[in-house]
Design brief:
Layout (H helix, E strand, L loop, with lengths): L1 H15 L9 E14 L5 E4 L2 E3 L1 E2 L1 E13 L4 E16 L2 E5 L2 E26 L2 E25 L8 E10 L7 E12 L4 E10 L16 E10 L1 E2 L1
Antiparallel strand pairs: 1-5, 1-13, 1-14, 2-3, 4-6, 5-6, 6-8, 7-8, 8-9, 9-10, 9-11, 11-12, 12-13
């Protein structure tokens, strides 16, 4: 049993020992992962009846790839392209509209971007890098999605019934087509070579085209966590 444990530990160490690419080499890394996002500078939205909707974070996805050139043992630069879904969500709300009880939930503004990140990597120690750069984003989809429930007399028979409501609205005309952000983060490369990458994208450009009550100069705020496979070219 002791020998089995020692073999397993040795195998784990061999797997997780980092294997950074050498000076003067190119590598390519496809990746995929998750997104947690919101938007800044948005006040609670009034929906009447003395009720306000509070903004929340929403969950999305990211997939893409990037090429990296290792200038020195410590420094490299990478550029890539990815598709990211992000945006924000709104809390559930319940209210009465005359004799009808309405509950709206799962409200999400979902924005889909094609992004081009360009980052510089500094390897503090072998396999572990801190990074920062610039990122260009191009809006390709924008949807508002919500689900609702209403209790009403559908057939005017004096009998209240639950009715499910759901729908999607195209919101693309409300948002700027271009987004500029600063990505900062860290990554760690295993020997496999699997790369885990965490980045926070600081949005610098205004998201909304026009100022409306409660929405002045909102910007994207995005955190991504990806897993990639890195191989030499």
């Amino acid at each position: 049993m002791k020998k089995i444990v020692m073999i397993a530990v040795a195998a784990l160490m061999a797997t997780t020992a980092n294997a950074q690419f050498e000076k003067g080499t190119w590598s390519l890394q496809p990746y995929a992962g998750g997104v947690i996002s919101s938007v800044t500078n948005v006040e609670p939205l009034s929906i009447g009846n003395g009720q306000n909707l509070e903004k929340k974070m929403t969950v999305g996805c990211i997939f893409g790839g990037e090429a990296e050139y290792q200038f020195t043992e410590k420094f490299s630069a990478a550029a890539g392209v990815n598709y990211t879904t992000q945006g924000c969500a709104w809390e559930d709300v319940e209210y009465w509209d005359g004799p009808v009880r309405v509950k709206i939930k799962d409200q999400n503004d979902i924005l889909g971007y094609v992004k081009i990140p360009i980052v510089a990597n500094y390897y503090i120690f072998k396999g572990f890098a801190v990074k920062a750069g610039v990122q260009l984003g191009f809006l390709v989809t924008s949807k508002f999605f919500a689900r609702g429930e209403a209790e009403m007399d559908v057939f005017d028979e004096g009998v209240m019934r639950d009715v499910n409501i759901y729908g999607t609205v195209d919101m693309k005309d409300l948002y700027q087509k271009f987004d500029f952000s600063i990505p900062v983060g860290v990554s760690y490369q295993f020997k496999v070579p699997i790369v885990i990458d965490a980045r926070y994208q600081i949005g610098l450009t205004r998201l909304n085209k026009e100022t409306i009550p409660g929405v002045k100069n909102c910007k994207n705020s995005v955190f991504t966590l990806t897993v990639g496979y890195k191989f030499g070219l």
